[in-house]
Every structure is written in structure tokens, then in C-alpha cells.
Design brief:
five-stranded parallel beta sheet
């Protein structure tokens, strides 16, 4: 039985909608960046949508948490954060999810258990490990998904965190989103180990590679992985192989790769693959897909309109949220 048939219309539609929202939102964000409406860094997630949709789709965000790096718009949308608040954050407006003071790399929602959006490479790995420790210490039933790129895997914080996670059997899944390039460098030029899934074995943490262009494979794996951790807490490690269609950030023309390579990966587009699979199982028609796409484009237009009309942060807000109240 195909995975599309196994999980049925409701789940597959939800995953398709999640990925399509990420795609259209980021296309709009890229457009607004080009018009200089958005300043600073802006790292688009286009091409990697199946990773966030497939992994977060397997969670219960009443008890589970996610934490990631600077390429975080897709994860924020996948947990259900309001696109208007995300776009306003990109604009640096007071109505943004981080009050306009974080920008692209700092999407955050305590309500949705989205703990960022962290701008320093690899910094989210020890923080996510700490959240997993909190879950175990408080005897909760949650799981943490900690995302980072292939460029972060050689940081010392990565190795210290995995060691602690195994010693204490913490309920955390480390996910390296291998989009093939750490900034502008092929990951194989800087990593002695090319099968990154092996990196967990040094700490006796099971590792596995997944195809990050196949959302149903990712979802199916994580449904089972999260279930196993709830039954008995332990860390896991995944390398999810994916590809970003755009440069490292909006200022990167990505001249370090060929047009042929980019086109090859676009032929494996995760949205097109799931749509085709659903059409083969007669779970969606072309007309229904076009309506979904138009509805999502309207949501993204509404988010831009909201950001455009939102106020700038007050100067007096500059020193707010610097210290937590004890």
C-alpha cells in the first residue's frame, strides 16, 4: 500500500497545504525583499518544505517543541504561526512575532512551542538539548525536534549536546537538513564524513538518512520515531537530504553550482511529487489544487498588506525584553 493511501485524504491534504503555504509565502517574501521592503538577512526555505511539513506534522504541539536555526520561516508556518505575524517580523514591524526586533532569523512563538529561529550557527543544539532535559526532569511526555544545517554539524556544541543527550536518554530528535551547501561550499569539501547520519553513532545514538524531497517518507518515519520516544525516552539522529533552490541568503547569487544541477533537483520537487501521488490515488483534482493554491496566495497577499500597514516599533521598546522578570 502506498503511504498516500495508508494515511488518507485528511493527512495528505494537510501536508500538501503546509508545503504550499511555505512555498507561496517565501516567494512573496523574496519578492518583497527585492522591493527593499525587507532588510537584513533573509534565508529562504524554498525546496526544503517536505522536511518541516513531514516532521512537524507528526507532532502534538501541546506537549512537543521545535527549535531551529536561521532558515526558519518554513518551520514557523508548519507549527501554525500566523503568516501575518511572520511577514510583519520580516518587515521589522511592531506586530511581528518577535515585535519586529528579531527579523528573518528569529521566528518565535511560546504558544506554538516554536523556540526559534536562532541566528548563531549551531546555537540551537545545546538549547534544544536543555529543553529535552526539562521535559524529562518534569516527567512530561513531550519530544523536541532540533533542526540544524550541514554547516553546523562540526561545531563543538553539537558533540557536547549529543553526548549529554545519550547519557541522560533525553527525548530529542536531532535533524540535520542537508541541503548540500554550507553557505557557499559543498558540504563534502568540509566534512570528513559524507554520510552525516553516522555522526550520531559516535555517541551510541541511532542514525538514519531520509529523502527530504518525499514528504510522505519523512512523515511516516517521524510518526514511528515520535511514538517510540514517547514509550521510552531516548535520542535519535536523522540526516534528511534536501536541496535549496535559492542561494544561501537573498544576497547570494549561488554561482557555485550549475543551472543543470539546480534543474535536476527541481525535477524532484516535493510539492509536485505529493500532488502527483494524491492525483494517482484520486485524493485531489486539478480544480481543487488550483483553489487551494489561490486561497494560499490570498493569505500571503493579506500578510503583506498587514505588514505594510503595521507600525514600526516605538523607540521606547528598544530596551524591552532584554531581561526576564524574576
Amino acid at each position: 500500500m502506498s503511504l498516500v493511501k495508508k494515511y488518507g485524504k485528511e493527512t495528505t491534504l494537510s501536508l500538501l497545504q503546509s508545503m504550499l503555504l511555505m512555498r507561496r509565502f517565501e516567494e512573496k517574501a523574496g519578492q518583497m525583499y527585492g522591493l527593499r521592503k525587507i532588510g537584513g538577512f533573509c534565508h529562504l526555505y524554498i525546496g526544503q518544505e517536505a522536511v518541516a511539513a513531514g516532521t512537524i506534522g507528526a507532532l502534538d504541539l501541546k506537549s512537543d517543541y521545535i527549535i531551529g536555526g536561521y532558515r526558519d520561516h518554513g518551520h514557523a508556518l508548519a507549527v501554525g504561526m500566523d503568516p501575518k505575524a511572520i511577514m510583519a517580523e520580516l518587515y521589522g514591524k511592531a506586530t511581528g512575532c518577535s515585535k519586529g526586533k528579531g527579523g528573518s532569523m528569529h521566528m518565535y512563538s511560546a504558544e506554538k512551542h516554536m523556540l526559534g529561529g536562532n541566528g548563531i550557527v549551531g546555537s540551537q543544539i545545546p538549547v534544544g538539548t536543555g529543553v529535552a532535559w526539562k521535559i524529562k526532569y518534569m516527567e512530561e511526555n513531550g519530544v523536541v525536534l532540533c533542526y540544524f544545517g550541514d554547516g553546523a554539524i562540526h561545531q563543538g556544541a553539537f558533540h557536547e549536546s549529543l553526548n549529554l543527550a545519550k547519557i541522560h536518554d533525553l527525548p530529542i530528535i536531532y535533524i540535520v537538513e542537508n541541503n548540500q551547501y554550507g553557505m557557499g561550499t559543498d558540504f563534502k569539501r568540509v566534512s570528513a564524513v559524507h554520510d552525516l547520519a553516522q555522526m550520531g553513532y559516535a555517541y551510541d545514538i541511532p542514525g538514519k538518512q531520509l529523502n527530504g524531497m518525499q514528504v510522505m517518507e519523512v512523515y511516516d518515519e517521524f510518526v514511528n520515531a515520535v511514538k517510540s520516544i514517547r514509550e521510552k525516552p531516548h535520542p535519535l539522529f536523522y540526516e534528511i537530504k534536501t536541496y535549496r533552490y535559492r542561494g544561501h541568503s537573498m544576497s547570494d547569487p549561488a554561482k557555485y553550482r550549475t543551472p543543470e544541477e539546480l534543474e535536476e533537483y527541481k525535477q524532484q520537487d516535493p510539492i509536485s511529487i505529493l500532488l502527483k501521488q494524491m492525483q494517482e490515488e484520486k485524493l485531489i483534482t486539478e480544480k481543487e489544487y488550483k483553489k487551494m493554491d489561490n486561497d494560499i496566495k490570498a493569505i500571503c497577499d493579506e500578510a503583506v498588506d498587514f505588514a505594510e500597514k503595521s507600525p514600526e516599533p516605538e523607540l521606547s521598546a528598544l530596551y524591552e525584553d532584554v531581561f526576564a522578570e524574576a
